[in-house]
Amino acid sequence: MKARTRDGGAGDVDHIAIGAGPAPHRRPDGRIARFIAEALAGTETVLNVGAGAGSYESAARAVTAVEPSRSMRAQRPHRLPRAVDAMAEDLPFADDEFDGAMTLFSVHQWSDVTAGLREMRRVTSGPVVVLTCDPKRVRDFWLYEYAPEVLDIEARRYSSIEEMAGALGGTGTVRTVPVPLDCTDGFNEAYYGRPEMLLDPAARQACSAWSFIDDGARERFDDRLRHDLRSGAWDARFGHLRTQETYEGSLVIVRAAP
Length: 258
Hints:
- With 258 residues, the chain is an alpha/beta fold.
- 29% of the residues lie in helices and 15% in strands.
- It has 9 helices and 8 strands.
- It has helices spanning 15-18, 30-39, 70-74, 113-122, 148-157, 161-168, 201-205, 215-231, 233-238; strands spanning 45-49, 62-66, 100-104, 128-133, 171-176, 179-180, 246-247, 251-257.
- A 6-stranded mixed β-sheet has the order 2-1-3-4-8-5, with helices on both faces. The protein has a two-stranded antiparallel ribbon with strand order 6-7.
């Protein structure tokens, strides 16, 4: 098993290096939360693996959170339960201890996705729900023309849907989650119709893939997007997205029942 980072995590993101303070650009979106709640319907006790600061835990009833990063555990509001310091690949729980389990925007940061998902399956008697991105669709987003390095990294980090479904076993479904135009959870595709937002370094920092590219790539992105917004080139190609109510991109929910 991969050694933990300075911050206690086991994945590829060093939260100390990129900054792990409160993230105003990553606020849970209630419309995405409804999809998560539907996938967990009928469960009482839910395990949240890679829980971070507790986003979307309101979608479940009684939650046990697991988070290996000290910085992320420290961000959890006092109203939420204290997170257990553990990694997905080695969960300190009994077989079938929970009615359901979820992991949200997290699997791409794990050191061993297959082992982590098998552990979630082991400790869960009901559905396991994974909110993730389909790597086959990541590069379909307009951002690929401006920052290909970022989305190439994203596509490599995400496990295939087939790999995740195989690790979870049982009966699986995959559902595309529409991203609303005014989405409050600022992952890259949340700005599909608001390109100006990605010119804000703080908005980009809230998406971990940007931390893996160099300053030159960031400057090239910034210069080209600014130029195309001023000239109208972006709007000529993608302006219809500014009024499109939702965007069906790479965001999906993988749900596996035993």
